[in-house]
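Me: I keep going back and forth on a fold encoding question. No explanation is needed for now; the record alone will do.

Assistant:
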Amino acid sequence: MSEAPEAPPRRSRGRPRNSPDLRDSILDQAELVFAEAGYNGASTRDIAERAGVAQGLIRYYFGTKRDLFDEVFRRRGGDISRHRHALLDALLADPVKPTVRAIIHAYLLPQWEMKYSGPGGAAFVRLQARLHSEPEEHAMRLRREVYDSSVRRYVDALADVLPHLPCDTISIRMAFMVGTYMFMLNDLGRLGDMTEGHVSDLGKDPMLQHLVTFLAAGVSAS
């Protein structure tokens, strides 16, 4: 007489199977909601509805709304930071010392590619801009956690090719650079007004090249 097939192990009630796809779906929808409404205006109920999951799953996977927001920021912010590290590694591996333009281009490129990578990437760029209106202490901690290691490496790289400038001066100009590119990246400029309607949208690559030219001159100035 043949044995009966072994029954599959039973899962405990209330604990969903760990699903990377489901987790990513929640993060994708949270990214869009946070970008549209900001942290204070977003609700986990709305995020759950958009993701097609029970609201309790958000608590199960991420905990609080703040924890979810942080994870959304870390996901793509971490991609940008890793990309910056990789581009700088490639520049520094070349026996020829990189130019200021090359270093600044490498720093800006991951943000530019993120914005044009699709709805999620564009939403993340808007979310970054909104982070400046969030509680300062938390926003600063999150930015430091995600970006500071790559920023410090770029400051060091610029200091190496600009030995006539104190490192503190380069750090200050790096802060100016971040403010400038974030402003333009979020389409907050007045190109149409400033050019009397002749230019309204430069496009991805021309805008980046103009910014690199402008910022390289400012960072390098004696």
Remarks:
- The chain has a mean pLDDT of 88.
- The CA atoms of residues 130 and 142 lie 13 Å apart.
- The first helix runs from residue 20 to 41.
- The radius of gyration is 22 Å.
